[in-house]
Amino acid sequence: MKILVSQPDPQTEKTPYHDIMEKYGVNVIFRPFIKIEPLSVKEFRLQKLNILDHTALILTSRTAVDHFFRISEELRIKIPITMKYFCVTEAIAVYLQKYTRFRKRKIFFPASGKAEDMVIHIGKHKHEHYLVPVSDIHKEDLTNRLEKKKIKFKKSIMYRTVSNDFSPEETFDYDIMLFFSPSGITSLLKNFPNYEQNSTAIGTFGAATAKAVKDAGLRLDIEAPNPMAPSMAAALEQYLKTVIKPSKK
Questions:
Q1: Measuring CA to CA, which residue among 88, 139, 138 is closest to residue 116?
Q2: Is the separation of the CB atoms in 59 and 86 below 8 Å?
Q3: Rounded distance, CA 238 to CA 227, Å?
Q4: Which residues is 87 bridged to in the sheet?
Q5: Chain centre to alpha carbon of residue 177
Q6: Domains detected in the chain
Q7: Phi and psi angles of residue 141, each rounded to the nearest 5 degrees, phi first
Q8: Integer angstrom CA distances of residue 198 from 28, 201, 216, 236
């Protein structure tokens, strides 16, 4: 059985997917359907936005962190030590150490890792002027919450999400395909406009990705997170248990 995971190869064997390969005798291939491209300084300037007009950042991913500091460096902007950072997860907050000192009073994140709980933190600092680095394709859930709370913020596109095209030489004979964003589904249909799912199982992580599959008229076979499987790997294993038996060592 051949399984496509539409994410970059983690370059390590210590992942749940490698455990699944050994346990069920399947072949897992990591192949992203999308890739990130940086916005140029010239393109950024067209937004007529001054980074230093803002006193706080809202960061939703490591990619957003990377491209905020990349743009700042290319513009030769020195980020003041007074800048506050509001991160969706602790992992993003820790990742900030790559670029700035971890100042306890300047970095905030919800213990739950949920955007709605981060907005509660932000609501306690309503006087700040927030900047939200995003991709050209992004969810509006967070910004909608900020608007409801009447938080002063501006979105800034600092990178773009584009289709990672397949070459004619690449075989496309997967039994299962796992997607993690609606952009992945868009890329699938761009690469294969006449795609027919047939017996191929499709799995998704997150409600937005699941909706994209259904809106495309495709069949959704594996959905994560669910009550029994908090991760995509766990949901995959849950599915595999119903179709094949674990390999005996």
A1: 88
A2: yes
A3: 11
A4: 59
A5: 17
A6: 2-33+167-243 (3.40.50.10090), 37-161 (3.40.50.10090)
A7: -55, -50
A8: 20, 8, 14, 19
DSSP SS3 for 197: coil
Name the strand (E) or helix (H) holding 211.
Answer: helix 207-215
CA nearest 88: which of 52, 37, 139? 139
Q: Is the peptide bond before 225 cis (omega within 30 degrees of 0)?
A: yes
What are the backbone dihedrals phi and psi of residue 237, each rounded to the nearest 5 degrees, phi first? -65, -40
16, 17, 35, 13: which is closest to 26 by C-alpha? 17
Distance separating alpha carbons of residues 98 and 219, to the nearest angstrom? 41
Per DSSP, 123 falls in state H
Q: pLDDT tens digit string along 66-114?
A: 999 999 999 999 999 899 999 988 888 889 989 987 666 688 888 887 7
pLDDT tens column, 1-53 = 999 999 988 877 788 999 999 999 999 999 998 888 999 999 999 999 999 99
Asked if 177 contacts 201 with a C-beta cutoff of 8 angstroms, the reply is: yes
Q: Smallest Cα–Cα separation from 119: which of 107, 104, 108? A: 108
| Alpha-helical regions (H) of 25-129 | 41-45, 62-74, 90-95, 115-123
Rounded to two decimals, what is the model's pTM?
A: 0.70
Selection from 95, 38, 84 nearest residue 58 by Cα: 84
d(CA 72, CA 84): 15
